[in-house]
Amino acid sequence: MILLNPKRSSDPQTAARLSARICRLQLTNFRSYRRADIKMGEGPILFLGENGAGKTNLLEAISFFAPGRGLRRTTLEDAGASEGDGSWAIAVEIEGAQGLVHLGTGIDPPMEGVTPLRRCRIDQEDVRSATAFADHLRVIWLIPEMDGLFLGPAGDRRRFLDRLVLAIDVEHGSRVSALERALRSRNRLLENGVFDPRWLDAVEHEIAELAVAIAAARSECVDRLNIEIEATHDPDSLFPAANLSIDGWIETAIKERPAIEIEDRYRKILRDTRDRDRAAGRTLDGPHRSDLALVHKSKNIPAARASTGERKALLVGIVVSHARLVAAMHGLAPVMLLDDVSAFLDEERRAALFNLLACLDAQIFMTGVDAAPFSKLASRAEWFCVTPGKVVPMPAAEG
User: Fold this and answer.
1) I need a surface site. Which of 4, 93, 193, 365 has the fewest CB within 10 A?
2) CA–CA gap between residue 198 and residue 328 (Å, rounded)
3) pLDDT in tens, 108-154
4) R_g (Cα) of the chain, nearest Å
5) Helix axes 154-166, 172-192, angle to 10 degrees
6) CA–CA separation, 60 vs 353, rounded Å?
7) Model's pTM, two decimal places?
8) Region 18-138+334-399: CATH code
9) CA distance 64 to 58
């Protein structure tokens, strides 16, 4: 499986790039906003306001233009304004290689007993899903909830890894969702105890195909990201270089053996472990059990053993390197959403991060409570004051 274009260099000096810029964001009945219409320049864009004012809601709205459920991983119903009818809508105007493009997404008022369907449109024309937005916009983010990534459960790191892959291969999310559905089907068949082996064989055939495709995408993304980090990391940087690997036999085997051979091997494992998995109530082997391993390269220690400050710096370095990789592989610098970054880093690392971001040629959205931590951005940034339900431009001098 070829996920990325091997002919395109990830060197930021040689990769052809285009910048997609959000110049307008409109919200209707989304979270704390009944209506909002925000016009902006090239950025960086700073949303400043007290805790609970609705700053993260603005970043979440933008994140819905990436495949998936947004940076909060919310249900569609929960994204609606509490005083609305349950419907919500988000629209952005994008300035990019194709000129001005309008993207929109949202749901209609929910009906009792009916799961709401998300609508997605490009220039007023319906498209199948948010994956179609990737031709115009790529979105990546860093949020405070990622702070415990290295110490938390393996599932959190898998989701983080899949989000990295998804920014490069927009179909990856569909494969992951399909694998989860197939695994649930297998678990139900095993739970029933009496089943037609042909049905179970068919489900396991699908599981094996999806599992190997997912593992291949993850493995190639990690390899490319390690190359990007190695090629561009400054040894004097305050953000230490990380080395990433995947703890999973399928992800390891895909580098050495043909995909069809690994599929057959996994199908045999699934057949041989039906009794075990029936007793456990779940499938115990496969890429849904893999883990992302991260190492602090210069110290050669697992990220979990690094200090709190080092872990945060490692995570920032990975996200910035990933942004470079996305830009290099697709020729489209991603929009970056950095929530509460002032609290995430100390003053010295904040200044270093601002310098790194200035070299990315990406549009950056940041949130914060106080203006002071962003003072080094001065007139380079566009400042907005956020209060409950309102977003108002503020002079840069106030920062």
Assistant:
1) 193
2) 45
3) 988 887 888 999 999 999 999 999 999 999 999 999 989 889 999 99
4) 22
5) 140
6) 22
7) 0.91
8) 3.40.50.300
9) 10
Q: How far apart are CA 181 and CA 296, in angstroms?
A: 35
Residue tagged 């498209």 (tokens) = 127
Task: Give the C-alpha separation, 214 to 237, whole Å.
Answer: 33
Domain definitions of the chain by residue range: 18-138+334-399
In 3D space, the residue among 354, 74, 91 whose CA is nearest the CA of residue 239 turns out to be 354
* Structure token pair of residue 40: 């902006």
What's the order of all strands across the beta sheet hosting 139-142? 139-142, 335-338, 364-368, 45-48, 382-387, 390-394
pLDDT in tens, 161-191: 999 999 999 999 999 999 999 999 999 999 9
CA 229 from chain centre, in angstroms, equals 18
Residues 228, 231, 237, 238, CA torsion sign: positive
CA angle 312, 317, 319 (to 5 degrees): 95
Contact 399, 393 (CB under 8 A): no
Task: Decide: 189 and 278 in contact? Cβ < 8 Å.
Answer: no
Q: Is 242 helix (H, G, I), strand (E, B) or coil?
A: strand
